[in-house]
Design brief:
This protein is mainly β and about 120 residues long. Helices cover about 0% and strands about 60% of the residues.
Length: about 120
């Protein structure tokens, strides 16, 4: 197993690694036999651009407001990060609720749905 900071070197640029340095404190050692490699283009996913949070309004049951919260990474749901959220709610508005990094003010609830304002 190679160390986390290992570096393989191709001294003559022929497509084979000739030496390996296991860390930055020891000189690179010559390999017994050169190891062939290929260079391929790859796109590394951006952690910030591929992360999404989705909050869905599920309705009101009695004096309980219900939401579903899900997290997605690279358009795939993260099962451990799917949960149903419930909040006690009164009949007077506005009313604030907060979860994770979402803060919202409930302006009203009726048969047409939920009216809200997202806060900073």
């Amino acid at each position: 197993m190679l160390a986390e900071r290992s570096v393989a070197l191709d001294d003559d640029g022929d497509g084979t690694f000739d030496r390996i340095a296991l860390d930055d404190t020891v000189a690179a050692l010559r390999l017994k036999a050169p190891v062939r490699y290929q260079i391929k283009d790859a796109v590394a996913p951006s952690s910030s651009g591929n992360f999404k949070q989705v909050v869905s309004y599920l309705g009101v049951s009695g004096d309980t407001l219900r939401f579903s919260y899900r997290e997605f990474l690279n358009d795939m749901a993260r099962p451990a990060f799917t949960e149903e959220l419930t909040f006690p709610i009164t009949k007077t508005y506005p009313q604030g609720v907060a979860f994770k990094d979402v803060k919202m003010t409930i302006l009203g609830i009726d048969g047409m749905g939920l009216r809200y304002r997202l806060e900073q």
